[in-house]
């Protein structure tokens, strides 16, 4: 195995949540971990990962059989945007489809809860990124149940078992996707409360970053424990054999980017896309064409 | 119970396929049946059904909790377009969303097989009609496996169990929809081979109907038995408690329309949508507004 690939696999493995395990984020997962990687190696390793990714992406498009969907979740300031920027530099933008999900529109709210995410899926040969995703429907909506708009939902979709029902529905949907060629890489950027405060302060103190800060960021911090609990249950219930979660320590941005690149590269390596081999008829056609072209 | 509604329920019941039953279309279902209804009653009964439907539709929109999805399947000339036209006259067009599915585009083909159907779902308060539907993916695609485009599919989606897998995936998806408020009425218009021939001849002999005829119609007749088998298995495997199939005898157009209207009205009656009751605060606001308006 390629040495860079082995490194990616070894980095990713311990971050993966085994299906069926009981996750307690604040107890079991250190947001400041760097898994023994040193800061000064990180740039070279990330550049290697990005190069590997670009090569795989080219074959993924040529083979035209699989898509890769990267699901990126994490609290405000956990580094989602920066991770996308740094991990996908070097990728062919034509083969990447990035979807950011903010507050749903009235049109989206009046459909079933997975509808807007299904519409945004990458087609075969592409890498899709969900910057926030269908998991918001069991995170922010769970922390703020008013967002469920329960007065418009039929009984099964708003009763006491709505969250376990949604976990099951999400798992079923993801299994369907994987079986039909959309492979899924789920990344949770795990940030500490202290590091979030530091990043917010930076946004307030640097005029160029002011636009990134809003009053709701502070408001949401009051729900920190609720979010930790919702994330923990989500990780416990929706890390499946077909689409496992990775909890990526995010207090060090350089490490979060490296680990995310490693997880994506690892999935691409499992797919192992190949350039299609031309049929004998294709070869004959090309030989003919080459002869004509050479003749001017 | 309203007498018109009782009639609709009594007409629909025997057409419904019990979940888990083994269907043999050509053996068990007579396309020429009219279930004891006489031709001369039909117009009045259909007008009554259309009026009931319009009333329910108004409350469905006001309640804004459920959508109804009508899935209409049937061979060429089985009367799908005419049924839609006659059953929905009287309905408010703003609350109806009709989607016709023909050959998929390249963009649609490069997504998972349910993708284009998910995009076309009705929002809450609306009645959606699928004129042909996701069931084509286990009908025409099964009869002509070349349409599967298997060379672009990953193993699970093209292996020997692709059809049973698709039945399961469709059932899972429909269960999710029903639980989230999209109620489903599935109608299979069951036409005899002889009546199809008569209708094709009519299309060939009447200049105004020529446009409805194409050479592929005759070509597809060669696959009659394959279609009967595929329909039979589809009905056996995807008639579920949450979304049962109705096999509607379609040799008599007037009967097919009446029975389809009855099935839709029956589902709307089960939903039993109600106008929202204003809250005390709403009432006070309206009393205030009325006083101001009356004062000029």
What does this structure look like?
The structure is a homodimer of 296-residue chains. The first copy, chain A, contains 13 helices and 5 strands. By secondary structure, chain A is α/β, with parallel strands linked by helices. The first copy, chain A, has one domain: Rossmann fold, CATH 3.40.50.300. Chain A has a 5-stranded parallel beta sheet with strand order 2-3-1-4-5. In chain A, helix 3 (39-63) runs parallel beside helix 12 (253-271) and helix 4 packs across helix 12. The radius of gyration of chain A is 21 Å and the shape is globular. Chain A starts with a helix and ends with a helix. The interface between A and B is medium-sized, with 31 and 31 residues.
> CATH topology of chain A, what is it called?
Rossmann fold
Helix-strand topology string of chain A: HHHEHEHHEHHEHHHEHH
Q: How many H/I helical runs of chain A?
A: 13
Shape of chain A: globular
Assembly context of the chains: homodimer
**Greatest contact between two chains:** A-B, 31 and 31 residues
Detail the poorly predicted runs of chain A. Answer: none
The helix content of chain A is 40-55%
How many E strands of chain A?
5
Strand order, largest beta sheet of chain A:
2-3-1-4-5
Overall structural class of chain A, as computed from helix and strand content, comes to alpha/beta
> What value does the Rg of chain A take, in angstroms?
21 Å
Number of domains of chain A: 1
Give the distance, in angstroms, between the N- and C-terminal Cα atoms of chain A. 45 Å
* CATH level 1 name of chain A: Alpha Beta
Give the biggest beta sheet of chain A: 5 strands, parallel
Mean pLDDT of chain A: 95
The CATH H-level homologous superfamily of chain A = P-loop containing nucleotide triphosphate hydrolases
Report the sheet-strand fraction of chain A. Answer: 5-15%
Write the CATH architecture name of chain A: 3-Layer(aba) Sandwich
